[in-house]
Design brief:
Number of domains: 1
CATH topology: Cytidine Deaminase, domain 2
Shape: globular
CATH architecture: 3-Layer(aba) Sandwich
Number of strands: 12
Number of helices: 4
Distance between the termini: 36 Å
Largest sheet: 10 strands, mixed
Helix content: 10-25%
Order of helices and strands: EEEHEEEEHEHEEEEH
Radius of gyration: 16 Å
Structural class: alpha/beta
């Protein structure tokens, strides 16, 4: 299985110094999360999650993909780096099959133009693609993409299996280590509802009740 993409190399912009939005976030963890530690925490806005799920489930026979748009930040008080996924840009003009999605030159032009036109001042913080019926992992070519085009410490890759409703984030650990089998969850960042909208089956919430005090959620 492969997902072929070619994105222009991006010069990393300075990190924004802003507190992590823990008061509006619910942590979802993956079973493999305790065995790896990514360089950046992940905050996934509900609005972006909903768009991503809609795109991922549009085609259960072919792989689809796109890029994750938002900000890379540092919480200097906590000494942590994190990303905010605020929106997505589906990749159009692709060639796809059950086992790959190919990003064409028209795809790249469209993505770059959309980023500049719709999200001035924002950046690509990673990419996403689907593995219908194949599960959540990075293929050898997926890893190549991450290493060559998303090699900033804060860049992540989201893999979704829309058929089984599972997903996970992959990213960089210390010393540019990329685990292609173990993935992590994310913070569901509430920008639509005080109730969770996550429907994926494999991550588990740290707390069952969104109403738990924010300071307690953030400390777990």
């Amino acid at each position: 299985m492969s997902s072929r993409i070619k994105l222009a190399a991006l010069t990393p912009a300075p990190l924004l110094d802003e507190p992590m939005p823990l008061e509006r976030a619910l942590k979802w963890i993956a079973t493999t999360e305790t065995r790896i530690k990514l360089a950046a925490e992940i905050f996934f806005a509900q609005s972006a999650y909903r768009k991503c799920v809609a795109h991922a489930t549009r085609d259960l026979e072919h792989e689809v993909g796109g890029v994750l748009v938002g900000e890379a930040c540092t919480d200097s008080a906590r000494g942590k780096t994190y990303i905010r996924i605020e929106d997505i840009l589906p990749a159009l003009f692709t060639d796809s099959s059950e086992t790959h999605v190919t990003f064409t030159q028209n795809t790249l032009v469209h993505l770059n133009n959309q980023l500049l036109d719709l999200f001035p001042g924002k950046r690509m913080v990673g990419w996403y693609h689907t593995h219908p019926r194949f599960g959540v992992f990075l293929s050898g070519h997926d890893a190549w993409i991450q290493r060559h085009f998303f090699n900033d410490a804060a860049h992540v890759a989201l893999v979704i299996d829309p058929y089984y409703h599972t997903a996970g984030f992959f990213g960089w650990q210390a010393n540019q280590v990329l685990d292609t089998a173990r993935y992590v969850g994310f913070y569901e960042w509430s920008d639509l509802s005080d109730e969770s909208i996550v429907e994926w089956h494999n991550p588990a919430p740290v707390v069952a009740d969104w109403s738990v005090d924010a300071s307690e959620r953030g400390s777990r």
